[in-house]
Specification:
Layout lengths: L3 H8 L7 H27 L1 H6 L2 H28 L10 H30 L24 H16 L3 H38 L1
């Protein structure tokens, strides 16, 4: 069971009214909201493919914007941690190297997911009509679902432990919640796209 008193002490270190912390929360929440709205708009209207000349060009542009937004999010996350106090009991070698290990595992999941999916597979290419031939089942997808999202969350968790930052841990929870909500929307929608593809193949 969760030690409520310990959790209260931990997050007593966090000033949730701090401007940097609020900006970090907004950047975390904004990113998956942005790419889901843009990708669904593209799927419904093909507006970006028409403007940019092709589905691939539109997908690559969205991917570039997502990468830029992720850099902004990571910067805001780091600045929010720096502006708030560390948890002294965690500011030690054991916690630091635990954070390094967790971040390394997260990085492995993110990179291997990207290599397995490719650029368009990673950055919502199926919403642009760029569909994969078959569902990817190789590593890391044979270990857990949505390894890109959970890998990214693990990186933030590790980064927070490396900085002994209660603010970082709370922001990591926001990352996890945001990704969980995104998965609830993305999973069924993507499955429907591929169902329609299979239906089209059978009707030929």
């Amino acid at each position: 069971q969760v030690d409520v008193a310990a959790m209260a002490r931990l997050f007593g270190y966090v000033d949730v009214t701090d401007t940097g912390f609020i900006v970090a929360v907004l950047s975390i929440v904004f990113n998956p909201l942005f790419w889901n709205v843009v990708a669904r708009l593209e799927h419904k209207t093909r507006v970006f493919s028409r403007v940019l000349g092709s589905a691939h060009a539109a997908c690559y542009c969205l991917g570039a914007v997502i990468l830029l937004l992720n850099c902004v999010r990571s910067h805001c996350f780091t600045e929010a941690m720096k502006s708030q106090p560390k948890l002294e009991g965690w500011d030690c070698h054991w916690t630091y190297y635990s954070g390094v290990a967790i971040s390394a595992v997260g990085t492995l999941f993110v990179i291997s997911s990207f290599l397995a999916l490719g650029f368009t597979g990673t950055f919502l290419g199926d919403y642009f009509g760029i569909l994969m031939e078959a569902k990817v089942t190789s590593f890391p997808f044979n270990v857990l679902d949505n390894p890109m999202y959970w890998g990214s969350t693990a990186i933030y968790l590790g980064w927070s432990l490396m900085h002994a930052s209660p603010a970082g841990l709370l922001l990591t929870a926001v990352v996890a919640i945001s990704y969980t909500i995104a998965m609830l929307y993305e999973g069924p929608f993507t499955e429907e796209i591929y169902r329609q593809k299979q239906k089209g193949v059978k009707n030929k």
